[in-house]
Amino acid sequence: MPRTLAALLAVALLTSCRISMSPLQNRLAPGQEPFAVFVADGEAGLGDLYAIRPEGGTTIPVTYTRVRELAPSLSPTGTSLAFIREAISGDPSTRRVVVMNLLNGNEQVIPPSALPPEAVAWSADAATLYLRAGSMILATPAPPARSSVRALDSLQSLGADSAFWALLGAPVFGRVVECPESGVCVVLADGTRSLVAADGRGGVRWGSDSVGYFVGNDFVARPLGAGHARKLQLTPPRANPREMTFFPGPAAPAPQ
Q: Would you say residue 98 has pLDDT above 90?
């Protein structure tokens, strides 16, 4: 057999044996380092998902579809990503919750609920998904994503992710919320509401002592204590970025 033909055959066999591949492979280590996922306008002007490190920089496409994707939520172990996929843009009845295993790229569709889902959140042990549909919160078992990362014990130890997730527990500094008039506020542990950014939107907990939010097409991370706000550079820039979810990295082992 000619050498060139043999090489092509070997490549074809290797390709055919690979069922799936993580979009983050060789670019991020899910579950082992901090990263974020957000929505931006992608192909056909609809929502696609992108990943980025907390210091900013290269934006990594996570999905490449011609349908609308929204409301991403990273699992507490950082190895799975739940989000909503809307097959026909503008038709909520076509929405389904999808869970992507970030270790291998496999996707699993959660059976549809009676009402179209609007948001997704995880339990602290990553075993249960909570779906918000209208005024209801529905619970469903989450597909496992195997990882050597230790499962987190509570939302308090994680101290990060979306405002919806924060509603399910008692995080370090309460909740990140939209202010009554406009902007981003935090609700502190004693119930006090404090304005963080009058021109911000899409607030998210960014670690145990910081918040993040969008200002126009920029994403800003700001500590609640000492320190300065910093703007993340998105390379290349993505159109209409929104709906950030953050994994702060694996929890430190409990002291012996």
A: yes
